[in-house]
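Loading example: each entry is read as four labelled lines plus one structure line.
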Amino acid sequence: MADNGTSVAGGEALLFLTDEQLRKGIEAMFFAYRGFTADPDRILEKLAYGRAHHRALHFIHRQSGLTVNTLLAVLGVTKQSLNRVLRTLIDDGLVESRIGRRDKRERHLYLTEKGTALERELSEAQRVRMRAAYRTAGPQAVAGFRQVLEAMMDLDMRRQYLMLRDGV
Amino acid sequence: MADNGTSVAGGEALLFLTDEQLRKGIEAMFFAYRGFTADPDRILEKLAYGRAHHRALHFIHRQSGLTVNTLLAVLGVTKQSLNRVLRTLIDDGLVESRIGRRDKRERHLYLTEKGTALERELSEAQRVRMRAAYRTAGPQAVAGFRQVLEAMMDLDMRRQYLMLRDGV
DNA sequence: ATTTTATGTCAGCCTTGTTGACTTTCCAAG
DNA sequence: CTTGGAAAGTCAACAAGGCTGACATAAAAT
């Protein structure tokens, strides 16, 4: 059996999923996620923002003009929790909340210039790391990386993810 | 260019890392991590424990007899923060703290039978999901998954991870 | 004998999650 | 046109789990 836990039988690769193999994957996820958030965290710290602010900025940038309800669904938190974060972002002039034209109950969220700038700084820090990791691991690895991650999501999360991945 | 962002030039595959590609990876990480923690979280909730307890149990199981200091380094939290968690685990009879034989200042941590049982339940829930994801994605994807994750870690985290990965 | 290390603990603070209750505004169905 | 329900905002209270700072004890190391 090869080191990566694969073997070939009858031209078809089979997976021998030992608990050991799985544990390595679990620990890799744990440590990698720390790396994944480390760079933005450092930037946010200086501004007295947290990861929650980053997430909000990310998805507002991603889907400009989305409603509060949509953002709640994507983030998977309560409206009270989001509101605290969103209020500071609006007060600080990073996010603009516009009343819906069709449905005036809705608030549509947009990044201001200032918000766009911070989002860019945060995501660029994150991209630098991802880019380096992708380069190190190579194209095949990258494809596999995404495949496993997508297979690991809950169904409802995958729905959200695919909507974003393939365009809204 | 292929859909996965790769192309072949002169027999060597090159990576075209558009911001779009990177963003998909970033969002995949975000949603996948939620899935990754979802199953243990549900189990922990019933017992009034949190993710912090799970992490402690995991690494004590992983490296039985490790000292408090070692655990602190792996988890990357302060001793006050760990202590709160550790104390409840010890009080509840999931973890045993034995005074070091060589160095009596040290406390070596072990899972009790009860602790082992809970750790198994938690990690099995996590393994079920990982196993399913691995099976769906296939062996090549799994190798790539781990490669990218490892390349994404901070240097000091990778040190910790490799020590655990390759045996202590 | 003194200093350093490992651990534990108290107090207090912050972020970010939660639930519950209540309001305002507004759309939509009866 | 009234009424029910949806979208959003807000107040209060609470908890987990991070953090810092300060201090205590025991034991090792110098």
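The longest helix of chain B spans residues 19-46.
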